[in-house]
Structure prediction request, 446 residues.
Amino acid sequence: MPGPRAPEAQRREQILCAAYDVAAREGLAGTTILQVAAAAGLSPGLIPFHFGTKRQLLLSLLDWLLETTTVLQVGPEIQRLRSPTDRMIALLRQEMARLSSEPYRIRLTFDFWTAGVRDEEVQARMREEFARYRQAFRPTIDAFLASQPERFKGVTAEGLSAVVVSFIKGCAVQSMIDPEHFDMDEYLTAAERMLSSLGGRPATISLSDSIHPAADTGASAPM
Amino acid sequence: MPGPRAPEAQRREQILCAAYDVAAREGLAGTTILQVAAAAGLSPGLIPFHFGTKRQLLLSLLDWLLETTTVLQVGPEIQRLRSPTDRMIALLRQEMARLSSEPYRIRLTFDFWTAGVRDEEVQARMREEFARYRQAFRPTIDAFLASQPERFKGVTAEGLSAVVVSFIKGCAVQSMIDPEHFDMDEYLTAAERMLSSLGGRPATISLSDSIHPAADTGASAPM
DNA sequence: CGTATCATTGAATAGACGTTCAATTATCGT
DNA sequence: ACGATAATTGAACGTCTATTCAATGATACG
Prediction:
């Protein structure tokens, strides 16, 4: 009764894709070996055969999720902006835009956050991912801090990047619990006024200009 | 073999406390009727008898969690501060301090956030709680915006409170995944410089002053 | 004191799940 | 073409779970 064979790597990817489909739809708690097997069109026994255990399947799914997620795109449209403040705001806008454009991926990542609270291995991967995400903001934040040295004396780039990342992750939480109420432009306006230099010129880009988050790369982004 | 009886309300509270103990320790996924019964020192059959179903037990636990959680304390020490900016920073400090002082409660709330992504009733309760939390910031934020009208022209109090709440919730996420790296003072310094008026006087309270989050009330905080 | 009520117990039930494994057969090397 | 290898299947197993329920006895009330 065995069906057609396939090389190890290809079958693993097939199973991982099926696992992503199920997990994105039903959540981590609702992801069972039976459902993954059904989604992949395979026998349930194949999953333990290729991944050993369900836990290892989910860890592999997490790795796959993080790998297929571009940490942060500072694309040419953003780099072209002269003012560091404008680049900051454009980055914020781009990252917040993903919260509504990639709900499934973000919800699944959210599931893994929760799993990471009590699972050491998941937590380690998430910790690393968070650090990568903060680091990706560093060039822009360094330039931003350097552009207003007297104002941000004593503020570390580490600290500000953590604040920015916290804000984005907090927006992710709110956008998942209360998507109706989530008003990106309203929040960005508030954020922009806090970032902008006080007496200075207004931001050189309007908030209604949209900086598209590198849609052509096909890559998606973390939280 | 039946043990001693107890009035309905008292037994429900006993079971809820046991459920909280288990859920705080093992997470929502690891909370079973058997464990709750064992923690309460009761027979497993009593839980469905008093709560109908496990789902209703967990919904009652969520209600209990939110009820025993003070939304936001703007205590006398904070109200005494003259500058709205100082009050904002003191509130931020107070709320962030809870992230490390009440880890169990916060981790459980986090679990419910995740549950709320796919459960309508949980989501509704969380949405309401988020709105309450934002509203609690409103008086302070209104005063803050009024203190720098020219700078924050066009910024709504709704928007800024959402930004502040997002930041705090994002800090909660980071503090749970990467507690080691969580540096409250560093983040507060960055936040303070973004809130402060630019040419203005420095904040009248030092960041090393600790505003204790109304420890005497015994009430605990959201998130 | 005696009786009806009902909270309580603990075993039983049914279902879902992860994992194991003997049987089967597609695939490859020879 | 043929046998060896091993991927694949599907059923079986054990475990864990929520839920049900008949039996029990504590408690309130007459």
